Prior knowledge:
By secondary structure, the chain is α+β, with helices and mostly antiparallel strands. The chain contains six helices and eight strands. The chain has one domain (3-180): 3-Layer(aba) Sandwich (Aminopeptidase), CATH 3.40.630. A hairpin with a 2-residue loop joins strand 7 and strand 8. The longest helix has 16 residues, at 47-62. The protein is globular, with a radius of gyration of 16 Å. The two termini are 22 Å apart.
Amino acid sequence: MFYLKVDSDLELRQFEQHEAGELFWLVDSNRFYLRKWLPWVDGMHSAGQFYTVIQMWHRQFYEKDSYHLGMRYRGILAGSISLHGIDWNNSQASIGYYLSENMQGKGITSKAVKAVINHAFHDLGLNRIEIRCGNDNYKSQGIPERLGFYREGIIRDGENLNGRFHDLIVYGLLSREWAKEKRSFSL
Length: 187
């Protein structure tokens, strides 16, 4: 099982099958909040669906295509973060994340993203990380902006979200930029 200890309060851990119910509860209890930005939320109706998704995530991890990790704050599942679409030929990947509404404002996502960036650049040797955020999702945009990502552009109608298209802002960060800012490899 893959695991990153961020600090005394926060750990990132690969989802296990027995956590399907807990993950469903997190999504279901935050359904109204999460569905504003995540197109898959309305399609998740049972823990059994997450059981199947976790199996897929394990396969992707072993194929070195992605990491899907639970963000545990003081032992409680607070959200999820992924390093996905790993393109080994071009040494790049994307980061995605979501956090339950009641865990907002504690710095959880910023710390988690920073830890995943460090792992991607230092341990995996990737060169580029991308984050895409909904054009109106200001909380999500704050993460890459605080961490020194460059706003690279907009993908017009980049995602179908609950029956309507919305624009996505693309943020990018290179390994040399992360190291230059002296953020590299320290939390």
